[in-house]
What we know:
Blueprint: E1 7-16, H1 19-25, H2 30-46, E2 51-56, E3 59-64, H3 67-83, E4 93-105, E5 108-110, H4 112-123, E6 130-133, H5 134-138, H6 141-145, E7 151-154, E8 160-171, E9 180-187, H7 218-230, E10 233-237, H8 244-254, E11 263-267, H9 277-285, H10 295-303, E12 308-313, H11 319-332, E13 336-342, E14 351-355, H12 370-373, H13 377-389, H14 397-409, H15 414-422, H16 429-435, H17 439-442, H18 457-466, H19 470-479, E15 485-486, H20 488-495, H21 505-514, E16 519-521, E17 526-528, H22 531-544, H23 547-562, H24 574-583, H25 585-594, H26 601-610, H27 612-617, H28 621-633, H29 640-656, H30 660-677, H31 680-696, H32 700-716, H33 720-737, H34 740-757, H35 760-776, H36 780-797, H37 800-816, H38 820-837, H39 840-856, H40 860-874, H41 880-896, H42 900-917, H43 923-940, H44 942-954, H45 957-965
Parallel strand pairs: 4-6, 10-13, 10-14, 11-12, 12-13
Antiparallel strand pairs: 1-3, 1-4, 2-3, 4-5, 6-9, 7-8, 8-9, 15-17, 16-17
Amino acid sequence: MDSSPTGLVTFLxxxxxxxxxxxxxxxxxxxxxxxxxxxxIDNAFASNNGFVFDIVGDAFYCAFHNTEDAVRAAVQAQxxxxxxxxxxxxxxxxxxxxxGHAELMxxxxxxxxxxxxxxxxxxxxxxxxxxxxxxxxxxxxxxLENTNNALRIITRDGINAQITFRDLGLxxxxxxxxxxxxxxxxxxxLHSEFxxxxxxxxxxxxxxxxxxxFIGREKELAEIKAQLSGTRILTLLGPGGTGKTRLALQAGxxxxxxxxxxxxxxELASLTEQSLLSQAIADALQIxxxxxxxxxxxxxxxxxxKKILLLLDNxxxxxxxxxxxxxxxLRNSPNLKIIATSREGLKCQGEVIxxxxxxxxxxxxxxxxxxxxxxxxxxxxxxxxxxxxxxxxRVANENASALAQICFQLDGIxxxxxxxxxxxxxxxxxxxxxxxxxxxxxxxxxxxxALPRQQTLKAMIDWSYDLLSENEKLLWRRLTVFSxxxxxxxxxxxxxDELLDQVDILDLMNELTDKSIILYLENEGNFKMxxxxxxxxxxxxxxxxxxxKFYAKHLNYYFGVYGNVFEEYAGPELGSLxxxxxxxxxxIQSALNRSFDNGLKEEGCRxxxxxxxxxxxxxxxxxxxxxxxxxxxxxxxxxxESITSSKNAAAILAVHQGLFEVSNKYLTEVLKIxxxxxxxxxxxxxxxxxxxxxxxxxxxxxxxxxxxESLSLRREVNNRIGIASxxxxxxxVAIREGDFIxxxxxxxxxxxxxxxxxxxxxxxxxxxxxxxxxxxxxxxxKAKEYFEKxxxxxxxxxxxxxxxxxxxxxxxxxxxxxEFSKAEKFFTEGYELSKETGYKxxxxxxxxxxxxxxxxxxxxxxxxxxxxETLNELQNVNDIQCLLICITNVAELKSINGDMEAAVTLIxxxxxxxxxxxxxxxxxxxxxxxDLVRSAIVKIGEAxxxxxxxxxxxxxxxxxxxxxxxxxxxxx
Length: 972
């Protein structure tokens, strides 16, 4: 084939009949038989221009440009299978052919209706049988009219065989959509007589024709059918709109062959009286009343000897009657099974609950191309329903993000997604996404033939709301103050008042869980509510005029939990506290936001200050600083003390973003205030932060002045964790200066305190810094042991800040050991994590590591590109150490490129910068400098080398950057 079929495509699907039984009966022979089968199918399809796009187990899915090729491929395969010698495991294959629209995208076909119908046609056949749809047959009509209604095929035996088509009439496939005329392919040498097709017509039923195809839910269908095989009453439980009815109908259609007396749906939504239930079932089964007998008794007698499946749809408003009658019917009818759909369980004997959750949908924040997006069934549903009203609709890069957001914001609820998709007739996906904040006005206009409650999203939820008790409604409304997940303790504290007793909340939560209003997350012990139900409840809360009251209670609760927990905490529970805060983070964000509207800015500000350590360790630098600065800039009704602490916390986050000027500005202001107030604890904390900033800027002498004063003050107030922190800071300065004796002394004392307090974070920091010392002292084994220990503690704590640093350090050790693949792994992980969190300094170091790795491996083009990118990023960040790494490696690249004068000038400028800042020059750098100078003398002579060396000692900082980026040819 010149190209794979796309657009109007003919599909040929095949499957081995009874493959499970064959595996059980002939385990030794089956694999040999399967190999023969695969070879025959491959050969037949390939020789007739077929494109096999998927193989699932023993099923082949093949596409053809035209129907004639597909028919010939099917007949050739069946003839060859018939003539094959199979020994004990005899292979019989069923085949289905169907033509429809499908687009090929990355070797996968998008066109759910066409593909699903192709599969259903195949599944209606028997082994050795070939079925073809009327859609495919229509494409053969002209050809058949010219050939006496027959096609010809030359078999592998050289026989010119005739192919004809037997009209099997209009048949209802198990996809439940409109009936289709079916034909059987007849050919010389093939078996032609089979039982009635495995379609819905083969069993009595009242399953309604659906106007749209059933999309997704493959996993749920398989689980429901497996559950039904082992139980007699299965209840599909879930909120309104999650597709319980359609799932029950499809499950019933799939298993109809198991029930010789049929599958029957009893639609209960329109019933208003419990006493009418028996009548509704009798009407569905077409049972007539008999004089002198109750309808219930007639019903029991009718089903007592029958193998039958009843679908009781929408039981929630008749829950008692459904429970009682189901139990009676099952007790008297051994071959009866029931699938019920409801918002709460029937709670009758033998009932098994299957929870129907939302459709799988993309999470926000992940960028995906259309092909990836269409793997989610919620997106596929939206796409198929959009195409029904807007045939030109396509999933494209331009609307991918909006589609993902729509499906996420609508919680993957099928009804909501279908209502949203209808709007694509007039609105773009982006406009629909923007209007979802008022979703109950937007999502209207369902099918006129649907039940009234299925025509708008609000009507659907009104149905659930109206079935609740007054206290259940009250609690639903109040629970909407939560964002994301919440605990029982939080609900009991926030939602209780004089109208709702705290002791009743547990039982009410259970009721709302049973009725699918809220979800219980068993693995976490938390609760959540679908966003659509939350917005509905919020509207009701607003109508009550209680929104402000419960928002204030919500904020006060989370302020009570987290308002002081992180700011001064040191000890072994930090990791679990951070995890707890991460689980509660949507509620914390909401509490911070609401504090501006409820006269609780002081509490909100104190909560933000406490969250500073959480934001730092979990990598939320930008968001954390945004919140803190929001309070700083809108400081009315916030205490002077809180604003000062906010600036301190914001300064620490700013450093991780590479914003040293912002950080130093805040810290200088704060230090002045603390000095005026005589606040020794505050002074000690701020001086340490200022000292660390000066360290990062390579101003070691100034840094030591601040850090020594910080240590003195922290010792004076006996701030143990503060002492450990400043000792670490002093140790870092000593490492950079090459004073490893004092560095070891400082950090070991810090480690003693961290061990005493059992503080995971500072133990990790100490191990990392000790590793640096051992690395510089040449004890590589000890250094690696401590770096790995540090990384392990960072991971345990969830300290993304520390993880970034540890990953780079381990990568650098692996690079020195020439373990290039390991080095690349650590550098790449460090880069991706630091980029995700916005930790600029760690990101730059990871980039330089990858640049050095490329240089060592001889990929000079890649190395050049990385260092150019790093230098560009460093333009606005005054990180001297990272810049020095770039300069020395760019010098090496210029040397390789033959620009020896520039190389010497740069390596000389780097050495001068090391000397000026008082930084220790590592042995590796000194060797690199000496080797480059010797090479330059050989290549350009001693005079030019000396001249370039002197130029490097006096060149300005700006000229260094310019020289680094000039003529650094990425093509070398």
